Amino acid sequence: MMRHPRLALVLLCLVLWLPGFFSLPATDRDESRFAQATRQMLDTGDYVRIRVGEEERNKKPAGIHWLQSAAVHGVEALGIGDRRDIWAYRIPSLLGALLAVLATFHWGRALVGRRAALLGAAMLASCLVLVAEARIAKTDAVLLATVASAMGLFGLAYLRPRAFGAGQAAAFWAILGASVLIKGPIGPMVAVLAGITLAVIDKGAPWLRALRPGWGIPLMVACAAPWFVAIGIATEGRFFEQAVGGDMLSKVGSGEEKHWGPPGMYLATFGIAAFPAAFLALLALPGAWATRLNPPTRFLLAWIVPSWLLFEAVQTKLPHYVLPLYPPLMLLGAAWALHPLRWAPPRWVRALAWTALVGVAVGLPVAALAAAIWLSDAALPGALLAIPAAMALLWVVLRAWRAGDWRRAGFAAVVLAVPLYAVVLEGVAPRLAPLWIAPRLAAAVQEVAPHLDDRDFGITGHAEPSVQFAIGGGIALLARGEHAARFLAAAPERRVVAVGDRAIADFRREAAAIGLTPRGVGMVSGFNYTRGRWVTLSLFRGPE
Q1: Helix (H) or strand (E) holding 249
Q2: pTM, 2 dp
């Protein structure tokens, strides 16, 4: 692995991330929204405005949609798939996650040394949150690639400002500009907060001149400004109202966003999100803080601490929000594992790290087995295989732990996570049929109306974006059962409606009132995991 580290990392990433990449259906809600918006860009040729069905979704920049569009065009040109395949939209996420891992190794060498950078990059690749993001068609894996690359260059400027060239400075600002096009201000925010922290602690910023902000900031703005101008014109300014006044401020406040979490939630869930590498990062943190006067360690802590505190303060919380702070955490963990005179953590930290490792290693197969028993017997073989996979990981890692061989423990955790993730993400998740309502609904619609135009299909009781991706962006999302009855009555000879069980009584009542005799042609049941409840959708056509 040390002779060809980049090739080894690429192979490791592929075996970690490809299980489930092709077989998992489009997930709700973000992935399906992003993919459907990109699909409508492809269908309409409008690569400026972002729409899902008839709804404007101009809440984030369009960079990820352009990358997804390019990936889908490439897949179609090669004849290996088409725009109906969700995996084609996942390609930028896979490549973004891969670039993030390679960037962590490449620039991590100057911060922690070659061997530790390799272990840190491998640890990052195996983190549960990145394993998930690498196979989801949205922004966060690509954002991680931009932040890891930009902060890697920032680290070089901080450690060796005199050797930092104009080309490196241009790359730093251009990458931040690309980051803005992916997810707005998050990438520049991490860099700015780290820079302010370093300047205050060091009582100076000699690295600032090396970064050349005089022309670098205009370069960053120039990379992102054309699209912002175009979307501002195309939406008559509504983009800025939706993106800043709606999306961003709703995440800071508590009123509109549903993903609320208390301060400290990211720290409390770190052991799960960063499994299996979390235990090394946790063990390393006390020593990192104790040696914070060491310039590379100080830089890595400045990358982590201020942004982490800000994310903890913001009321909207999702596990992937702190993902841009994982590369320095993994590098600190790897550096601690390989240091011959490593700082011994307190007993309570060791207990916390042990709990994080064992708890998640046991919890994953237990959760997989419970889901298989509850939802689908077809997933039982994979769930049962997850148990020995998890036990093998624990046995090898804890044995190395007892021997004090932390380097071996880290690499063993990463490598033995491969079969565990594979059986869960390929053997269990795709086989939990009740979770995947949209593709089964699309198949049922195709069976009863093979050539149905998506504009002639309406649905109430399950208005999830995965249905739009599976059937088409032109479908009618109907609020109530009576609306479904009127929709069907408007063209009963060609239209089809899907009516949820909670709306069926209103549907039949309105149908009787307007003289419509609907004909039941099918039924699909499943578990809506975004709302946490079972739903049964009945398909209706007009009378024969």
Answers
A1: helix 249-252
A2: 0.95
